[in-house]
Amino acid sequence: MDFKSLLSIAIQTTITAGTEIMRQYVDGFDTVTKADGSPVTSADLKAHDILNEHLSKTGIAVMSEEGEKFTHEFRQNNDYWCIDPIDGTMDFVNKTDEFCISVGLITQNTSKLGVLYAPALGLLYFAAEGVGAYKFFGDQKAAENLLATSDFWDELIENSEDLPVYDLPENFTFLTSRYHRDQETDQYIQELKKKYNEMQVITMGCAIKLGIVAEREATEYTRFRSVNFWDIAGGHAIAKYAGLEVLKPNTTQEIDYTDPEMRVDGYSLKW
User: Fold this and answer.
1) Which residue in 8, 101, 17 sits closest to 58, CA to CA?
2) Which of 67, 171, 228, 238 could form a disulfide with 198 if both were Cys (CB 3.0 to 4.6 A apart)?
């Protein structure tokens, strides 16, 4: 499998979807409530269309939060894209800027390629097996300008740095979810505070937190509540190829994509 070529396609497609998402973020969007009570917007659906159209051309099946879901048998026997057109739709609706596109490529029950792009924050992380993990240094406009270049990949890498980018924060910095923080997380934070006197806790939305830990802007992100495959697939690869282990909480076991219900029962990554 040519992960470099697939990663290039995934990044270009993600930037294109990000342009449409930001257009609606500024100009306005429609919102409806799904059967599970969560919101979905016209931006989610349009981004899904863009991602599905372009990623499907690779010949690899696309599973999306807003699209087709594959059977357990299919997922166990095939590679597939696993995408969330907008991770953090609630943050998108509430205009916090903390939402991102998440694209992962699942093969042999693990994520081997990932892209996380938060256009409103100007954050773009990407990684793949045999390629490495990177952060692009540039805002939304700079990312869009790459699409007009004749040598997209070379320009992208020239303006990116290997992950991790920084030394660890002076104070232990823990990231936690804005909308999915639970009692177990609160108890875990209290235990950490006993170990680290100068600990900082930062609340953020969406899966971009995995990229922030991967670049060492933060020390740890642990989530105890379960997530869907598409919530974690992109960030999993980025963290993994940055040198982190993405583990099931309180274990030494890496997360995987074997669950028949397409759930990962929490995860933890820390330096």
Assistant:
1) 8
2) 171
Which tokens belong to 53? 């159209």
CA distance 186 to 191: 9
Decide which of 121, 138, 162 is a domain's last residue. 162
Of the candidates 111, 116, 146, 107, the one whose C-alpha atom is nearest the C-alpha of residue 128 is 111
Same domain membership, residue 84 and residue 49: yes
| E strand segments, 147-217 | 160-162, 173-177, 200-204
Q: The pTM is what?
A: 0.97
**Angle made by CA atoms 37, 42, 45, in degrees to the nearest 5:** 85
* Gap between the Cα atoms of 112 and 25, Å rounded: 30
> Which residues touch 22 (CB under 8 Å, ≥6 apart)?
119, 120, 140
User: Residue 139 and residue 143: Cα distance in Å, rounded?
Assistant: 6
SS3 15: helix
- Gap between the Cα atoms of 219 and 200, Å rounded: 10
Whole-number Å distance between alpha carbons of 246 and 248: 7
Q: What is the domain extent for residue 73?
A: 3-162
